[in-house]
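queue> holo job accepted (magnesium ion)
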Amino acid sequence: RPRVLSGIQPTADSFHLGNYLGALRNWVPMQETHDTFYCVVDLHAITMGHDPALLRKRTRISAAQMLAVGLDPERCTLFVQSHVPEHAQLAWVMNCLTGMGEAGRMVQFKDKSAKQGADRTTVGLFTYPILQAADILLYHADAVPVGEDQRQHLELTRDLAQRFNTTFGRTFTVPQPFIVKDTAKITDLQDPTAKMSKSSSTPNGLIELLEDPARAAKKIRSAVTDTGREIIFDPEQKPGVSNLLTIYSALSGRTIEELVAAYDGKGYGDLKKDLAEVVAEFVKPIQQRTNAYLDDPGQLDKMLAIGAEKARAVAVPTLRSVYDRIGFLAPG
Ligand code: ATP
Ligand code: MG
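queue> job finished
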């Protein structure tokens, strides 16, 4: 079976529909066809400043949501990144193979650091994509199911894998991005040209899996739509309406064409009202299941400990062979 690795940051009290439609949703069926490793990437979550108690809480909430959308610890390896110290250890080696200029070209760093300001931007945020490369290479992943925003980081991962292999001998699998075009970029409800994001969207720009459906309905109602009144799919000219159609289609299983035909002659208000209902129906069972997992944190932590053991069974030998190839003296 081909191997898959992907991760999500515990940087908010809830995942949003971009996370779900761009990534999580694809992780579920891959459990049947791939050897799957999914992690809550807490090391990444401390790159922008954080609160310790909140991080601990969000790490559990993240794991609970992953289970609630259909990840099954019997069929995948679900773990917390910091439970597997080899991520940080391999990241150091990868840091030493990455050029400053190369890392400096990463668009996510430019965006996030510009928003934070130079004084508050950490070196950790700068080397974030290199840690991400380590996450992936540690497991010899063949495929990495992510949203469009991660394409450039995947390209860096591939370059680093190839560089290591050429310099020190074949060690790493060069991974392929797995990006599902239709839902690769869900946009912000208030700014339909920007991606929906846990850390940079305003609350009104997000539809969260765990929020009260009435609140989500209100946000959908006030979503920025486009001039004109026709409901058509045109991401260039009508990014707002097109984003709503994309979400509607993905959650309902109806094609965009079907929806466009069904809303012929109707207004944006009708579309928004119906979408809010679709969202409410969709999130209800996810919220119930998430709460059930959170009701028993001891059980959740035990499950994550088992996941970490399974992950380390792959990560430890990979790091050992990397240390050997680069010439670190084995401890006597
Ligand atoms: P942050 O703002 O903290 O970076 P995020 O919303 O970007 O949070 P991540 O945890 O960084 O979420 O990413 C988890 C996964 O969700 C990644 O695979 C990423 O590509 C995907 N993803 C994030 N936002 C979107 C989006 N708007 N559309 C599609 N996929 C997305
Ligand atoms: Mg992100």
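queue> The first helix runs from residue 17 to 33.
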